[in-house]
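Late entry, written up from scratch paper. The run itself happened at the end of the previous shift, but nothing got recorded in the book at the time, so transcribing now.
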Amino acid sequence: MPDENSSQERAARFLIVHTALADLSLEDARVVVGYMRPRRIRMGEVFIEEGEISDTDYMMLIIDGDVSVENHGTSHGDSMVMSIIGPGSLIGEMGVLDAAPRSASCTAVTEVRAAVLSREALLRLIDGNPRVAARLILAISKCLADRLRLANRKIKTMAGLSRSLQQELEAAHQPSRLTIKLNPPKPRA
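Output as recorded:
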């Protein structure tokens, strides 16, 4: 990064904003940033691919630029943009913890500058500064719990919509109960 000290300070401040890991103190964030490495990503580059199984053991803090987070559709090769994120956002928190396949794809919408924390660096942080590492892991866990709660709310909303659509479909396919009398009764005199 061009001016290492100011870039590290900016990354530390982004790390503690509400969109990243707000539970860290600025002092803790400065320690964490010391374990991160810079990365530049070209506009249009798909730098994380959903389902990717190698090189998944890191997370990124976006410092400059915008990133499209997408999930591949289940049919016709469609993908759906889940969100556009920018400075102060984290990507890949699950990967730094479990190194499992990626759950979404990320594409740089603009040129992106990021700070990367690898699992290896996290393990060095645990050895070198266990208190800060514990607070970082708790902050990551809280971030993931918040995302899980949001996903659960979305699932409930989608289930309600699905139920309503199913009721509408069932009602539309019910035989009509309207009866038409072909021979109306004659009036009595």
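Residues 130-172 form the longest helix (43 residues).
(Scratch paper discarded after transcription.)
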